[in-house]
Amino acid sequence: MQLIDTYASFFDWEMWINVLTDPVSWGLIGTLIVMEGLLSADNALVLAVMVKHLPPKQRKKALFYGLLGAYFFRFLAIGIGVYLIKLTWVKVLGAAYLAWLAFDHFFRRPKIEGEEIELNKKGIIIRLFGPFWGTVVSVELMDIAFSVDSILAAFGVSEQVWILFVGGILGVLMMRGVAGIFLRLITKIPELESAAFILIAVISIKMFLSIFGIHMGHGIFFAILAAIFGGAIGLHHYRKKHQHQTANM
């Protein structure tokens, strides 16, 4: 019954109005969008690689169907997640997983140069559904895999249904539409990628503290957010200046 009430709240217009007119809600939504963009920009390129064997017109169609599937998955995941995230053991696992993501980013195995992900055209999914629909299914599955981290992190930011939904939908749209911009931004300021994972670590702590009834206020969270990304940009300029001085010595 509680799960049905959660999905019903998606169509609560009063909640729509409250969320869309609340500056704090837009701050949280903006956080989700930026986090999605920074963490998933390279994922959009993986999806592009997955559809490159199709004719140009079918590539766009496959990615569009994949986008619709991503939205539907977000709808299901947020509805179920709002119910599950209230369970203590789910929060413990979620906080631990986010902490592992941050740890893995800073201590993971270096990528081998030229290492790529390719779609096996003769894979079982392609054989079952054919080249086009097999690719669509593969894109859907990859979207789900990519979404797990973002959705879990989103629950660490807020547990309000519409904040999660609007932030998730806009985040997915941004990831697909302006992935190139985020990739160029990360290439230009590499520290931003690490900043995103530091934010993931902070969200993990925030989620873990909530288990003990300790809730991080929005003001504190936004201050930490500004410090993380401001620090990343400042560090980038410091390193760039230091390298320039070293080169001129």
From TrEMBL:
Q: Which InterPro entries match?
A: CHP03716_TM_YkoY, Integral_membrane_TerC
The alphabetized UniProt keywords are:
Membrane, Transmembrane, Transmembrane helix
| Pfam families with a match to the protein in the record | TerC (PF03741)
Q: Does the keyword Isomerase apply?
A: no
Where would you find the membrane-spanning parts of this chain?
Answer: 24-50, 62-83, 89-107, 128-155, 161-183, 195-214, 220-238
* Coiled-coil ranges from the UniProt annotation: none
Q: Where in the cell is it found?
A: Membrane
A GO term from the CC aspect: membrane
Keyword Protein biosynthesis found: no
Q: What is the residue range of the signal peptide feature?
A: none
Q: What is its main location?
A: membrane
Instruction: Please report the record's description of how this protein sits within the membrane.
Output: Multi-pass membrane protein
Please state which protein family the record places this protein in.
Answer: Belongs to the TerC family.
Query: Which protein, by its recorded name, is this?
Result: DUF475 domain-containing protein
Organism of origin: Pradoshia eiseniae
